[in-house]
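Progress against Task 2.4 (sequence-to-structure conversion) is shown through the following example record, which the project officer requested during the mid-term review.
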Amino acid sequence: GNVTDPVRREYLGMVSALDESVGRIVDKLKENRMYDDSLVVFTSDNGGQDTCGSNNHPLRGAKFTLWEGGTRIVTIASGGVVPNKGQIRDGLFHIVDWYATLMGIGGVENGIHDCETVKLDSVDQREMILGGGVSKRNDFIYNLDTRTDTSIPHVTGYAAYRYGDYKLIIGPTGVGALWVRRDLLEG
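Structure tokens generated for the chain above:
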């Protein structure tokens, strides 16, 4: 291809291999007539690390930052239990919401804890994922790190909170706080 940067080429090769692997799993689900009863979720816990070939353009930041490039990710939900394929959901969804959402989709109500006093941060978002409803969230905490160890300054001592379209970041913004130039996507 036209990508000349060796680190970027290696990253893109890994993405292609992963895509092929997920495709094989989906093909096997279909071959074994299990796809119609399946939910396949492809997600991440953070944005890509720009020094390792990833690029979060047009978002600012990368992995280990609380900027959108380090926290906002794309998730793909597929399978027979997803009724409206090809639609985009843009509501707030925190990674911890997968617990309550998957439990709800699986028919397990109120979690699976023995102790009724457990308060979970997870919110059941199945109406948004499966039915096109709106997010049940208007806010969440991205990170709350009160450590003072400065040996790793870009991952300690910072916090972020989002309310609607606004985000408050407190502490050092760290490595990767810049926007990546668009021309680096090709090279």
